[in-house]
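Bench notes, afternoon.
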Amino acid sequence: MKKVVKKFSISDIENLTGIKAHTIRVWEQRYNFFTTKRTDTNIRYYDDADLCMFLNIATLNENGYKISKISKMDIDEINNLVKRLKEDHYNANVQVQMLSNAMLKMDDDEFDEILTGCVNDMGMEASMADIIFPFLRKVGFMWQVGSINPAHEHFATHKIGQKLIQQTYLHKKPSKHDSKRYLLFLPPNETHEVGLLFAQYLLKANGHQTLYLGQNLPFESIAEVNAYFEPDFAFSVLTVSNSDNNIDVTVKKLRENLGNTPLILAGNQVSYHNICPQENLILIKNIKEFTQITEKLGMSIAS
């Protein structure tokens, strides 16, 4: 079967790499980076190899290498230099860029290699705080400006979710005599599970019991399972701006269906809105706050 050649316009390259179209044209004229390719109708295009090269150039340029120096390197030199940068898993900026590159190419093996390297060297918690959450914020921005489509975001979040699940059961500790019971879920219209999966990882790594119910759980089901499971705490994440209900209405419904069970809330909507303080409601705006609050409650987080 004949291989289908992907064709990217200069605006596609601009959106996918962040390099302005004008800059690309200047680089081509000044440094003769790319061989011109044209369709049968004489429309200029770039292929997969060009996209990979642009992504590598962007990575080097963002890490202090001037384009005049990059232009004097051959393809092997550029690839080897990017590879050396990629091997430094503690360089957060590089790893965020490399994950972005792998996502844009939808390269499953490359994304997994980068993610696994970071987790093996840094641990899951540090990788989440320093690399994965900053990467997800970048993904959100890229989606808003139209640089990526939903398939890119789904690819990345599912790969991260798979890694979190793997690490959760790899480092799970037996329940402690003083362990707490946690009910973890996302309310209606919430589908982003990475934060919820990370909370499960932290809790299970410390010997606590969790009941994980995933995304888009109806409010009436929350009340039923809360009565059945009798958790010490409920944990949820509010990421999506819900056009049907404002944040205070959502919180009110959660509190009504959880009764006296303390609710810990995290997510973008918690960070960006002034939620009215109320009894049995604990708000966390970042990983550091989650660690501090859980320690205050006598539930240490794994280092």
